Amino acid sequence: LNRFFPGSDTGSLTSRLAHTFIQEIVRRCDFGIDLHAGSNHRANLPQIRVNFDDERALDLARAFQVPAIIDARTRQGSLRQAARDVGVSTILYEAGEALRFDEVAIKAGVRGIVSVMSAVGMLSPAPPQKKKAADPLFVEDSCWVRAPASGILHMEKPLGSRITKNTRIGFIADPFGGKEIEVISQFSGMVIGRLNLPLVHQGDAIIHIALVEKLKLITPTISDFREELE
Hints:
Blueprint: H1 13-24, E1 31-38, E2 42-50, H2 55-64, E3 68-71, H3 79-85, E4 89-97, H4 103-119, E5 137-139, E6 142-146, E7 151-155, E8 162-163, E9 168-173, E10 180-184, E11 189-195, E12 199-200, E13 205-210, H5 218-229
Parallel strand pairs: 1-4, 2-3, 3-5
Antiparallel strand pairs: 2-4, 2-11, 6-13, 7-9, 7-12, 8-11, 9-10, 11-13
């Protein structure tokens, strides 16, 4: 249904389904949480995407308790845009990879949903934690690093890694063992998405970096987040 919202009651089957979903479900909601995984062979660090100019949605994003909250404008045809058009603030949870179970992504998603439901009064407040939840990193922009050549990709930076500009994040090997080409990041920030396929073509997007200003906060934020889920 993505890009088919808000749909039409006289359009295609997909368009009609999107229209029914908006009219019968979304219009009856007070707020929304849209759950997404990465595409095939692309994994995402647990993150929330939200319009920073929507204060109600931003409060929901804070309550979700993930490492990164990313300013993401809504796109025409998306569920978030259609929901916003009818007055329903919606956040988007991105985590994990399509067609695979990711324990961290699942645990973070369940915890986040319960936390939001507690924050809005749908559930009783959760008992206080022994350790305060880590403050999320607020991200206003992100960029992809692309493959400088075709070949076999060896990625050296996992999700959540701190990256500084002009540092090596992996290399691409010639299938015949003739040479290795370093992959250098043109940006500083945190790895929030990456390609898991070993074979790449020149120009393929291979690693997604959130442009975080305070790099020193990345490592403790990710460390605290993982400890909270154990």
